[in-house]
Amino acid sequence: MCQIGREYLEMPVVKKIAAAREIAWVNPGLVPWEEALSRLGIGGEDIDDAQERLKRFAPFILKCFPETKDRGGIIESDLAVIPSMKEYVNHLCKGAVSGSLLLKKDSHLAVAGSVKARGGIYEVLKHTEELAVSAGLLTQQDDYSKLASDACREFFSQYTIQVGSTGNLGLSIGIASAAVGYRVVVHMSADAKQWKKDMLKSHGVTVVEYASDYSEAVKNGRRESDADPKSYFVDDENSRNLFMGYAVAARRLRGQMEELGIAADARHPLFVYIPCGVGGAPGGIAFGLKELWGDHVHVFFVEPTQAPCMVLGMATGLHSGICVQDVGLTGQTHADGLAVGRPSGFVGKVMEPLLSGEFTVDDWRLYEYMRALLRTEDIFIEPSACAAFEGPLKLLQSEETRKYLEERGLMGRLGEASHIVWATGGSLVPEDERKAYENTILKP
Ligand SMILES: *Cc1c(COP(=O)(O)O)cnc(C)c1O
Questions:
Q1: How many angstroms separate the alpha carbon of residue 276 from the centre of ligand 1?
Q2: Residue 1: its pLDDT value, please?
Q3: Rounded to the nearest 5 degrees, what angle is found at the Cα of 66, between the Cα atoms of 64 and 69?
Q4: How far apart are the CA of 388 and the centre of ligand 1, in A?
């Protein structure tokens, strides 16, 4: 039963969302970065703290996951220029993208093959550090690779980590926790793919399956974990730790942009488009980006037309007090990583003064973008991740975002702009699943 006030349901943008139309939404709450920061209660020092912690853990990560050797135990992805895909995008939107188009390949992050390798692994490590330090097994000056010893694994095996997931967070938390030695329980929503469950089981993870959606899986996981004093719940709907793990991405991106000779300043606007589910990953990344580039970076989230929970929460100001089912949407989408009906309340509030806006996208387009990227650049990313391509395509085509650009005097600067499409997952997708995706053609 819907308990949302009529005044919300009658907002023009909510009506469009409820009709499952593709929308562009500009955030009326956006304020200059300095002002936003003064309101937030979090800042650069929180990102520094996360970054330092990941550095302390690098020797441990290197030992458990030798594939991180090239980066010395730091889990990071490449930033790629994608000129052929830009041609394809411009073919669709009549040459609207005049600056450079780049792909941030979190789809290829080590260990978990998705953006969740940032936040998920970070939170597991932070908890691990706390347990080990309070048990007298570790000091912050130690070489953290000692945590991979049999004695430490034995110690961690008395503890449990639990998480609710549509798939990728479960993979990230499951693989990282199993490496430390924890017992792990992943509560998977109905949207989660079978291969993700199978992969987790092969790591010794207990997978609990639900016929219901993500919010339900989270709720049950939280309850089971709270009943066990030796269990820790990674709470995707509220976690500051996940958020800060994601936020570190921007610091690393800055170095990569410098290497490519790409500027982000008053003369060179930077546009970043990130697929959004519950909000933790795109929110953390957005916060990190604003902390570095302030008003020169414009961050847009992209959600499926059937599961646009973040834009619904932000446009109404109700945040986690509204879900997509309240306006008659199903919450069901081929973008399994984005199949979330209710947004994080914590993230929505942090985004209020700093997010530029949102786009929503129909499922059929995801497969078209996916095939185009494969054809033009020989890069495979999963359908959820492809949602981000809607950003550069619609930025100039939508009246709302055109107005955003005009009001900020950005129209004349687009030739010097950079557009980063954040590819959030894909490299772990098995070959046969990939083939099935490649052959999926949905009707518009
Ligand atoms: C989880 C996920 C997202 C979005 O992250 P949230 O924290 O849920 O907003 C985007 N893309 C992929 C592939 C994901 O797995």
A1: 6
A2: 45
A3: 125
A4: 11
DSSP one-letter string for 342-383: S--HHHHHHHTTT--EEEEE-HHHHHHHHHHHHHHH-----H
Ligand 1 binding pocket includes 384 (Cβ within 6 Å): yes
Cα–Cα dist 387/307, whole Å: 12
Q: Would you state the structure tokens that stand for residue 433, as one six-digit string?
A: 């699943």
> pLDDT per residue over 32-42, tens digit each?
999 999 999 99
Whether the Cβ atoms of residue 75 and residue 110 lie closer than 8 Å to each other: yes
The CA distance from 91 to 295, in Å, is 30
Which residue's C-alpha comes closest to atom 11 of ligand 1? 424
Q: In this predicted model, what pLDDT tens digit does every residue of 312-346 receive, in sequence order?
A: 999 999 999 999 999 999 999 999 999 999 999 99
Ligand 1 centroid to residue 100 C-alpha, Å: 24
Token digits of residue 444? 């518009």
The three-point CA angle 213-219-309 to 5° equals 50
66 CB burial (10 A radius; 0-12, 13-18, 19+): exposed
Strand bridging mode 100-105 / 79-81: antiparallel
- What pTM does this model have? 0.97
> Which residue in 347, 331, 312, 333 sits closest to 382, CA to CA?
333
Radius of gyration of the chain (CA): 21
